[in-house]
Description:
This protein is an all-alpha fold. Helices cover 86% and strands 0% of the residues. The protein has a domain at 32-77. It contains two helices and no strands. It is elongated.
Amino acid sequence: MSKLDLDIPTIIKLVIWSMLVGALLYWLEWSTGDIFGWIANKIAGIWNWLAGTGIKYMLLGATIVVPVFIISRIRKR
């Protein structure tokens, strides 16, 4: 058998869940483009934060964390 073993009950469950989710999306007046656009905007926002201030704060934190880490490793020897 293959890893994707679809039997009749599984197919029926998939059809029912697809219909329920489709009805919910229709009721909320959302499209797949709205959902994928929202996800893309969130990823873009995280990327902009990292490219802007996120990297600066990460480097600032590294100036404290890395020396403390090195000193603690030297003290263990």
